[in-house]
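Onboarding guide, step 5: your first structure request.
Type a short instruction followed by the sequence, for example:

Predict the 3D structure of this protein.
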Amino acid sequence: MQFKAKKSLGQNFLIDKNILKKIVGTGDISRNDKILEIGPGTGNLTEYIVKSKPKSIIVVEKDNNLIKILENKFKNKIKIINTDVLNLTKDFYEDNFIVYGNLPYNISTKLLAYWCLSINIKFKKLILMFQKEVADRIIADVNSKNYSRITILANWRFNIKKKFDISSKCFVPRPKIDSTLLEFTPKSDVVKIKYPENLEKITQIFFSQRRKMIKKNFIKLFKNFNYVSKITDIKLTDRPQNISIEKFLIMVKEYENNLN
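The system replies with structure tokens like these:
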């Protein structure tokens, strides 16, 4: 069955067999693993996941036309859920999945942020492909231009490794930029925050004005701003990209203490 990719859904299908095998191998799948694949498309990666013989495979696909292709191709070898991945509730993620996904640009950071902030959702591993510019932001260093909210949220919850870049030539239709595969392994020693939405709130406040010094927002957030500045070693002349992940987490804890 012929299928035309939909630009509105950010569809670019990976067709390079060597890269597909390499991606599946990154997950180191065993017979006891439960796999969740986000956006399987025409099932190119799914084929290699099936060959790895995990315990179960669930795929989440939004496009109704692709559902028919997947049903014909895999029959009862996989469970297909026809929905937008952003509609899945926390209850869905009860199985400690290995997650594979080629995430469309328009939802990639939103979905990753949701997974990071939903502390009750447990994963074994995430093997995710992003447009290269998004991946660069996720793994950015403090004091760099790519350092951002998603850097902080992702590295709070996960140890992240860049596995390899993937040329745009490996996709149909060919996207304008290359992609990058990242591996996320949950941290066993996540810094505890009472309400993760406070990390989201504070990073949003600061990075919405990333070029400006933090002084104005810092004083709004903390009545005892001089004390918080001192214990976090954050200068009011800093800009958001100058503040390490560790310092943001201390800041959130102080914010929560002040709410009591």
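Each response can be followed by summary notes, for example: The longest helix spans residues 245-259.
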